[in-house]
Amino acid sequence: NAGVTQTPKFRVLKTGQSMTLLCAQDMNHEYMYWYRQDPGMGLRLIHYSVGEGTTAKGEVPDGYNVSRLKKQNFLLGLESAAPSQTSVYFCASSYSTGYNSPLHFGNGTRLTVT
Amino acid sequence: GDSVTQMEGPVTLSEEAFLTINCTYTATGYPSLFWYVQYPGEGLQLLLKATKADDKGSNKGFEATYRKETTSFHLEKGSVQVSDSAVYFCALTANTGNQFYFGTGTSLTVIP
Questions:
Q1: What is the pLDDT of residues A47-106, one digit of tens each?
Q2: Hey, which of A70, A90, B5, B11 has its CA 20 to 30 A from A31?
Q3: How near does any CA of chain B get to the CA of A81, in Å?
């Protein structure tokens, strides 16, 4: 029962470097999401996807890009990392939207940008 | 827009104490309401949910009732255990929308 798997678990970047976070789900879910979690701010939605080949902006999309080339994978990219992007990043997926489709979360990626 | 407000933490309780974590929401229409729990070093897990007014969600001894008149979904447990120490998030989704809205989380520590 893998569920939602995120890689890597930890990463340290220098300002200006780039990286990609990978999210993979094996539940055949249509919807996938990227959140960031910061102290005192809860979870904020970065980008989401409602199906293979689609992406949409969430609440805090600036500085991030995403791709959903395959249904099971949702990639989050940082082209030029900034210290403000130091955070814990969570990927989530759901079968649909609304009341019968709660989110399933990965275990997170802790990113530090120095 | 839609939003969730939950009580500030952290909350520290002794084992077997009664727990209440307050959550109120703002939404158009009739949202579904959720409580998620995050144990240290892990992602969020669904704890319970309610999909319409007066519904009571329950799981692992936790309960929450969807109160439309007070726009609330308070989390309660009659007797907490050390293993309940975690961060609890209230969340909502509109039944026609693609997004979930989360509260800021309430950290609970239960001491023996």
A1: 999 999 999 999 899 999 999 999 999 999 999 999 999 999 999 999 887 667 789 999
A2: B5
A3: 23
